[in-house]
């Protein structure tokens, strides 16, 4: 018995040591030429060189494809060649080494034809709004001049034909996936898994995009570019300090426009669905929406606040941007119907709120986060008048607008 146990221990140790040499994954590059090259670079240099080297490789392929036809386009080749020259110049003397040693991981966000925004829709039994909703979102993206896609989790597949018509009508814009009443958390996560955009916009199936202006899309893009730690931007309602506010805030924020972007917005503790925009990279890093607090078919109540809380804890930031002109489809929302109201706003709210409280309910954490949000706001924005300060009011019984 002892001999057998000893042999087992030796075998286990041998396998552990061997695993260091045979395991796949994030091990150091085994090539000496690559190891010595990569170790000389700081993280940002590696990221920039990876982007430039992969861009050069892709552009060389695109130029060759343009030359081979079926029809050769001289102006297209000239434009691609100018981009190629610019990227080769950025990479400089490191291009050859980077082309070999930094292509182990691709950057999908740089692929040709990727949309800027992937609009995620959880759809359930609202046939009257299918064409109106898809059209309003497609037109909003077209006015903004931004490539978009609408990824729809169709949660009642018996309406597949209606969605197939929209797919045919707007070729390439609508991307459906057919489920069977998995509902919000699972539906949005499933749609996010199909999305190809750099930014995700969680949309609800009773909403229509503003019909006249698309500045909200260009403003979202400006915010994400100017504030690299900003992960989430809500456009429905918000809280500056959850435990010191009697209800949600909405409409335009009190701060003057952000000097970096010219956009009027605010850092906030929490935002509500929907719309809610989030970096695709952050959504993936955070693990998406929490599915453990609900069962398939349940509404996603509290999922928005739970996602925002995880974002703050992970070092990201959350903001609010007022979306003017958003409209409803003229029908009652599904969670407010008599058959669903108690199930969502009663039972599911009780369960999800309890889960949220167990995870984030510590009073010291809540107040520390409120102060973090306040400091970001007073350091980043100005007020037109002191009395416009949103803090220290009946609406937000916390803090003030004094800069330390």
From TrEMBL:
InterPro entries: Nucleotide-diphossugar_trans (IPR029044). Keywords: Signal. This is Glycosyltransferase 2-like domain-containing protein. Residues 1-24 form the signal peptide. It comes from the Eukaryota. It comes from Volvox africanus. GO terms for molecular function: glycosyltransferase activity. The keyword Cytoplasm does not apply.
């Amino acid at each position: 018995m002892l001999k057998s146990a000893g042999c087992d221990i030796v075998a286990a140790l041998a396998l552990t040591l061997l695993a260091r040499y045979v395991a796949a994954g994030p091990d150091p590059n085994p090539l000496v030429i690559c190891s010595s090259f990569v170790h000389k670079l700081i993280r940002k240099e590696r990221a920039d060189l990876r982007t430039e080297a992969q861009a050069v490789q892709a552009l060389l392929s695109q130029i060759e494809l343009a030359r081979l036809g079926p029809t050769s386009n001289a102006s297209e080749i000239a434009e691609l060649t100018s981009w190629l020259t610019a990227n080769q110049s950025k990479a400089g003397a490191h291009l050859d080494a980077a082309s070999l040693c930094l292509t182990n991981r691709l950057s999908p966000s740089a692929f040709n034809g990727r949309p800027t925004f992937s609009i995620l829709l959880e759809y359930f039994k609202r046939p009257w709004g299918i064409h109106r909703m898809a059209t309003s979102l497609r037109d909003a993206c077209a006015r903004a001049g931004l490539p978009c896609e609408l990824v729809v989790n169709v949660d009642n597949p018996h309406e597949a034909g209606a969605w197939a018509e929209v797919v045919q009508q707007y070729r390439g814009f609508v991307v459906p996936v057919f489920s069977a009443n998995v509902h919000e958390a699972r539906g949005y996560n499933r749609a996010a898994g199909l999305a190809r955009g750099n930014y995700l916009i969680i949309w609800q199936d009773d909403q229509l995009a503003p019909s006249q202006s698309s500045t909200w899309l260009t403003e979202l893009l400006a915010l994400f570019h100017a504030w690299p730690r900003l992960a989430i931007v809500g456009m429905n309602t918000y809280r500056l300090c959850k435990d010191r506010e009697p209800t949600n805030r909405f409409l335009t924020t009190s701060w003057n426009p952000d000097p970096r972007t010219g956009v009027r917005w605010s850092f906030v503790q929490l935002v509500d669905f929907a719309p809610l925009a989030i970096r695709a990279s952050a959504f993936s890093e955070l693990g998406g929406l929490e599915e453990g607090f609900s069962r398939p078919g349940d509404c996603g109540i509290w999922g928005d606040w739970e996602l925002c809380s995880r974002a703050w804890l992970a070092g990201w930031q959350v903001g609010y941007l007022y979306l003017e002109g958003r409209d409803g489809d003229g029908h009652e929302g599904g969670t407010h119907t008599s058959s669903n109201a108690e199930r969502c706003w009663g039972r599911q709210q009780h369960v999800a709120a309890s889960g949220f409280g167990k995870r984030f309910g510590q009073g010291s954490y809540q107040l520390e986060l409120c102060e973090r949000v306040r400091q970001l706001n007073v350091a980043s924005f100005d007020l037109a008048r002191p009395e416009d300060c949103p803090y220290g009011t009946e609406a937000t019984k916390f803090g003030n607008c004094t800069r330390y």
